[in-house]
Amino acid sequence: MKIPAYYGFWHHLGHWLLKASSWLVLLFLILPILVIVPLSFNAEPFFSFTEGMLTLDPEAYSLRWYREIFNDPKWILAIKNSFFIGILSTILATILGTCAAIGLARDEMPFRRFITALLLSPMIVPLIITAAGMFFFYSNLGLAGGYLGVILAHAALGTPFVIITVTATLTGFDYSLARAALNLGATPIRVFFDVIMPLIRPGVISGALFAFITSFDEVVVILFMAGPQQRTIPRQMFSGLREQINPSILAIATLLILVSIALLVTIELLRRRAERMRGIEIPN
Amino acid sequence: MTAQAGNDAFLRFTNVKKTYDHKTLVVKDFNLNVAKGEFITLLGPSGSGKTTCLMMLAGFEDVTSGEILINGRNVTSIAPYDRNIGMVFQQYALFPHMTIRENLAYPLKIRKLPKDEIRAKVEEYLALVELQAFGGRYPGQLSGGQRQRVALARALIFAPDIVLMDEPLGALDKKLREQMQFEIKRLHEQLGFTVIYVTHDQTEALTMSDRIAVFNNGVVQQCAPPHVLYERPANMFVADFIGESNKLPGVIESVSEERVEVRLQDGGLVSTLKANCTEIGQATTVSVRPEKLNFTDRLGAAGNQVKARFVTRHYVGEYIRYHFETASGSELVVKNLNDSSAPQLSTQEEVALAWLPEDSQALDRSEVPTHN
Known about the structure:
The complex is a heterodimer of chains A (284) and B (372).
Chain A: H1 9-34, H2 36-39, H3 51-54, H4 64-71, H5 73-104, H6 112-124, H7 127-141, H8 147-170, H9 176-183, H10 188-216, H11 220-225, H12 233-242, H13 248-281
Chain B: E1 11-19, E2 25-34, E3 39-43, H1 50-58, E4 65-70, E5 73-74, E6 85-88, H2 100-110, H3 115-128, H4 144-156, E7 162-166, H5 174-191, E8 194-199, H6 202-208, E9 211-216, E10 219-224, H7 226-231, H8 236-241, E11 246-255, E12 259-264, E13 269-274, E14 283-288, E15 294-295, H9 296-299, E16 304-315, E17 319-326, E18 331-337, E19 350-355, E20 360-364
Parallel strand pairs in B: 3-8, 3-9, 6-7, 7-8, 13-20
Antiparallel strand pairs in B: 1-2, 1-4, 4-5, 9-10, 11-12, 11-14, 12-13, 14-20, 15-19, 16-17, 16-19, 17-18
Helix pairs in contact in B: 2-3, 2-4, 4-5
Subunit structure (chain B): The complex is composed of two ATP-binding proteins (PotA), two transmembrane proteins (PotB and PotC) and a solute-binding protein (PotD).
GO cellular component, one term (chain B): ATP-binding cassette (ABC) transporter complex
Pfam family, one (chain B): ABC_tran
């Protein structure tokens, strides 16, 4: 930032203090996450930096804990479960959330605010309450302790994200495009797939990614709902922390960070693409 | 007096009514017969019901009561995608994620035409609107006028029975608008489709239409060819909405077959065409177009005369507007071509203004429009 010419001493002081405190907040947020990464390459079964690591001795670093993860059937199952549950619940959440957002965007929709609040509530209500409620409800239906129950529960948690992102792309959507397609002979279903869907796709995809992340790092609902067969990565980490404490948890955490970064980058790229497309829509 | 289509009309609106809130009628008993190939304009101020009629025809609004017949078939319960009506939208409504070619091909793809036929048709219509070089572009990469031409081609390419245009030129600047009016007329003459055109621009309506239906408050005030509408407006609203009118209040003194004599408030007696005011003793307003009013020295003694004092003049360019006031306080405007005949007048100078009886009408004063 360019410092304006009229700045006096106190202005300068304030400017630098603001800058310093901003950096401190950023470090506070990111440091606990970053510190995990080098520790996951620890050659020793410790959660702290060894002398060798601090002197950057190559001998002190190893892929030992990564090997351990991929040789442990428990971790393999957890990884498979995480992706299986994540992907299926994402598909469900995306379909439901997109339909809900399109319905809620219509002017003639009655009780719009109330229904929106209801659909978004899984995001706002403390997770432990949702999880407990789901547990009792799903137990009565015989769904607790199975894949279906976990997938449905995660879909419910992911749906609000899809609703929010799709609703955002729908605001400012030119409904005369839908009318034009109807007028040209397209049935409402064709209008949806030919015209509405291509234009709201960025919102649908980023909503889906959010839903996937939600399922991927969710542990509370899993604690309530999942049996031993449905253990996901976070659930396995949770028990790992208590039972066999070693840096393989840090290795899996590092992998999770990589997945999250990849997803966030994808969302950002999509957002830029969406903006470019909107730029095409309103030129001159 | 108009070439109205009879019972075998191609498109018919019969007693069509529309209400949104079940209290007030937005369209009150709309009747219209349209012949095949006719260019009909629905003209009126905003909120007069003209767009609602168009939307009912397109199938985007339900008809509260009444019938819309196309080729004898009642379409009121047919879905918009089964009506085979083309439409040009106000904001073009081109699909931004499809190229111009894909936009044009879309209605043909839906109708499952063979691929090579679609390709040939698309090229034909691109040529028709002179956009051959732009087929691969996206709508966002075209100018307003070009996008309008694409919208027009897309509405025509599937050879619909009727083409609807909802203020299609509203977003264009004046020059482009005139160019596009010409373009639409050219295509209409070349391809012979039936047009229902909605606008609030009277010049556009007058230059393009075969007939114009003037709307106000959900009622058609008059439906007639442009020259009839302009020269023989059916009531005060039409006289006021289409062009400009000078209004001279008076009372009907005698009635003959085609004319009435009116005693003006100033005391003068004038003869005018008979219109919707025919009772002796009835209060009336004599309506005369500003360009039909003349300075006496040119018209001689023929016709009606009224005395007025000169107030001011406005220089418009191709013509000059002279403002006058009569003794009883009525304002009069005279439009005179900006040529050597344009008189020089001094303020408060009294002049006799004259017009021919067949250039004026005695209209009912109670039908003064409610502009909103």
